[in-house]
Amino acid sequence: MNNILLLASGGGSNVKAILNYFKDRNDVNFPMIITNNPEAGVIEIAKEYGVDVLLLNKHIFQEEIFIDTIDLYKPNLIVLAGFLWKIPDYMVKAYANKLINIHPALLPKYGGLGMYGHHVHEAVIAAKEKESGMTIHIVNEQYDEGTILLQKKVKIAKGETPETLAEKVLNLEHTWYPKVIDSLLPK
Ligand code: GAR
Question: Is pTM beyond 0.90 here?
Answer without folding.
Answer: yes
